[in-house]
Amino acid sequence: MKLPKDIFIPLNTKRDKRNSNSSNIAGLPNKSVSLAGFVKNLIEESSNGVSLFETNLTGGVTSTQRIGNSNFATGVGSTISGGGYNAASGEYSTIGGGSANRASNNRSTVGGGDNNTSSGDYSTIGGGKSNISSNEYSTISGGGYNAASGSRSTVGGGSANRASNNRSTVGGGSDNNSSNEYSTISGGRSNTASGEKSTVGGGSGNIASQRYSTVSGGGSNTASGSRSTVGGGSANRASNNRSTVGGGNDNNSSGEYSTIGGGSANRASNNRSTVGGGSDNNSSGEYSTIGGGINNISSNQYSTVGGGYYNTASGSRSNVSGGIFNTASNNNSTVGGGTNNTASANCATVGGGQASVASGDNSTSSGLSNIASGWRSTVGGGRNNIANNSHCTVGGGILNQASSDCATVGGGHTSIASGSYSTVSGGLSNTGSGNYSTISGGKSNTGSGTYSNVGGGAYNTASGDNSSILGGIENSTSTFANSHIIGSGITSDRANTTFVENLSITNIPTAATGLPPGSVWSNAGVLTIA
Amino acid sequence: MENNFTIHIFGYGETQYITENINFKALTTELSAVQPLIDDIWLERPQEERGSGEYFAINVFNYNRKSWLGKGDEAASFNVKGEDTLVTLIDSLIAEIIALMPL
After folding, report:
1. Model confidence over A433-454: pLDDT tens digits?
2. What is the mean pLDDT of residues A499-525?
3. A positions 354-373 inside 8 Å of B (CB)
4. Which residues of A touch B73 (CB under 8 A)?
5. Whole-model pTM above 0.90?
6. Angle A344-A350-A352 (CA atoms, 0-180°, nearest 5)?
7. Under a CB-based contact definition with an 8 Å cutoff, are residues A367 and A381 in contact?
8. From the candidate CATH numbers 3.30.60, 3.30.1300, 2.40.37, 2.150.10, the one assigned to the domain spanning A430-530
């Protein structure tokens, strides 16, 4: 038997003193020759050329190589089962086949493939091409150009993947880099898991760079906070500890424990802030929340915007439920909805409507273009109403104003309650300017005296203190206190008097018996005063 | 100046300055800085806005957002958000209002 010139057969040159006599091994090829008297070499001719099966039994050390073409099993107890240009130089290293593979450390294994290098203690490469498992217990199952360089690191397959730290894993895909302890990349492309115990599930260009950080998938996402998570989507960032972005695009959850569910270009920038979805929302207050919508802002602690767009909740614990261009700018302020509403004082509320303002502390407004600017003032609805003093109220109507402490306009049109505790119930162009004055309704009535009262009618003026006008037209109590008018066209001329046009008494007493002094009674048809 | 403030210039004749700790109203006629501020906010209206300048209320939120609420259907209403263009005027008005507050 003559060997080709380009084959080098490394033989163990140590003499095995215990087994100086060569012997056949069961199962070996049936053609064998003995060389040098102390090593038994078995050479088999095959259709591919020459195979050499060599068994060295020297000092208890056994290496086995089956050479198809330039295989070298030089490690103690090493094995090469086939292939060509393989080298098993590690102690008890194994190469199953393939070509140009290296198993260079103790108990390292290459199953097959081409140009693989298993150089770590107990490292394994199943197959593929140009893979390197270079640290202890590192494993590459297959694929190409993969590297498992960390202790106990694993690359399942794919190409150009790297598992470079202890117990790091890349399942597959390409160009992935799992570079910290216990970091994992399941697959995808160009992903990086660089944080300790970080995970990238898949996708491309994702980065999980801090401890326990996770990117499940999508593209170009970054989880850079400790225990941060990006579920998917693209260009999302969870950049602070325990921050989360569920998905969407270009979202940035940068506050500790902050969360963005999805949408696009949303920001949750303070601790425990949340944006559910939508786009271009900014939740920058601690514990602040935006449910969704567009261009909403919750900028103070515990502030909330439910949805809509261009809404702002900038007060602590402020709330805008929805709508457009609404603002809750002070602590505990609320806008329920509508458009262009503003609750700007502490505990102020605008229920809804349009262009309404609640700017007094604890004030409430609603409707269209209403203002409640007084402390605890209220405008219930209507249009262009104003309640601009403390505790005053406009229930509704149009162009009404309650401008003094505890004044009330119930409704109607263009009415004013400007006296303290004055009331205008409704009607048109009525004015209650006297303190505690009351106008029940009608048109162009005025109650300017303290405790004055106009029941209705038109163009009546109760200007004397405690005066009253029941109704009718064009009556006036003038300046006389305690004067009262029943009728029309009457003007008081003295105090403590009741004026009537005509008086008709039904059921008039017919005897004075039991009547107090000053009572009137009918004395057989004659009006008599008791 | 406080960082988070609101100024209301009401068409009915009062101007209100509100912060977390202040809520004070003054008659607009007592504040010389109001009208220049109104004029400049009006100049910031969108080009397509053709309504009249009669206002029901003008809201100023901090330095960078203004809301002009027109009075009636024919009046202009618009929101301006962006650059801090009126800082000097706003600061002047706030200073005037604070000077009127009781000690």
Report:
1. 999 999 999 999 999 999 999 9
2. 91
3. 355, 357, 359-361, 369, 371, 373
4. none
5. no
6. 140
7. yes
8. 2.150.10
